[in-house]
Amino acid sequence: MGTPAFAVPTLDLLIREGYQVVGVVTAADKTGGRGHKQLIESPVKQYAVSKGLQILQPLKLKDPSFLASLQALKADLQVVVAFRMLPEAVWRMPARGTFNLHASLLPKYRGAAPINWAIIRGEKETGVTSFFIQQDIDTGDLLFQERIPIGENETAGELHDRLMTLGAEVALTTVKAIESGQYHALKQDDSQATSAPKLFHETCEINFDQSTAAVHNFIRGLSPYPAAWTTFQGLELKILQSAPVPSPPAEPPGTVISDHKKWLHIATADGYINVLELQLQGKKRMSIADFLNGYKW
């Protein structure tokens, strides 16, 4: 069960390792493109179609017809990667249970955006966790974890791709352990839990009235998507890559200074952010040099 690209390597690895995938549950097709007339299939569906796998795309996970179709697959185990919250009727169905792969070191960063929030909050390491699904989201008994360091300038997109590969390996380890019965499920320590709530456009606005390190972490934690933004000349400006400038600021936080040729800095509470890549409203992503070459103010 999964929808985005993050789930595809896990599905692919299980198939290459010889496991019988009796069905794939993914999101319903969406409309997009010009005029919203094009049907867009999820990355998981595209992969499943290429392998000739049976696909279920329920609109509602409690729909009796979906539950009947899922039961008919007679799966021994359900593997969930980047999917919706499951009703108990779904996760209790297989004899060997249902486990989820989560992109954090649970109980830290429970929620919808663990990769983003780990970087935003300045973590030096993160990882992936497999756990048995229970009623409350991301609270089930832990199975396996693997850790990796977070680079000081690594973006959410870059970390996503590394965790995607690592996650597939952890999922495979988990399946093998459950198959053999050689595993120990560990209760989560709720006192150590932190949250990783869903991101919205309004929560992605940059607050420059904080430290340079905090602003830099915020920018890279939201890059490339959904992207940290501010306003510039009355237009929304997404900042996609930055670097800290530690010199004490002479201007109030949020002030833009530039040589209008090669660099653009924005003052923070204790320094500056050097903007390296950006995207102005209505324009494509570009380097700061290209932006300054074509935009005058």
SSE class: alpha+beta
Number of domains: 2
Number of helices in the DSSP assignment: 8
Mean pLDDT: 96
Q: CATH homologous superfamily of the largest domain?
A: Formyl transferase, N-terminal domain
The CATH architecture of the largest domain: 3-Layer(aba) Sandwich
Low-confidence stretches: none
| Spatial extent as radius of gyration | 22 Å
Termini distance? Answer: 50 Å
The CATH topology of the largest domain? Rossmann fold
Shape: elongated
Q: Output the helix-strand order.
A: HEEEHEHEHEHEEHHEEEEEEH
Let me know the number of strands: 14
What portion of the residues fall into strands of 2 or more residues? 15-25%
> What is the CATH class name of the largest domain?
Alpha Beta
Q: Specify the biggest β-sheet.
A: 6 strands, antiparallel
Helix content: 25-40%
Overview of the structural elements:
The chain is an alpha+beta fold and about 300 residues long. The strands form 4 sheets. Strands 9, 10, 11, 12, 13 and 14 form a 6-stranded antiparallel β-sheet that branches. A 4-stranded mixed β-sheet has the order 5-6-7-8. Strands 1-4 form a two-stranded parallel sheet. The longest helix has 25 residues, at about 155-180. Helix content is about 25%, strand content about 25%. The chain has helices at about 10-15, 45-50, 65-70, 90, 115-120, 155-180, 210-220, 290-295; strands at about 25, 30, 40, 55, 80, 100, 125-130, 140-150, 230, 235-245, 255-260, 265, 270-280, 285. The chain is elongated, with a radius of gyration of 22 Å.
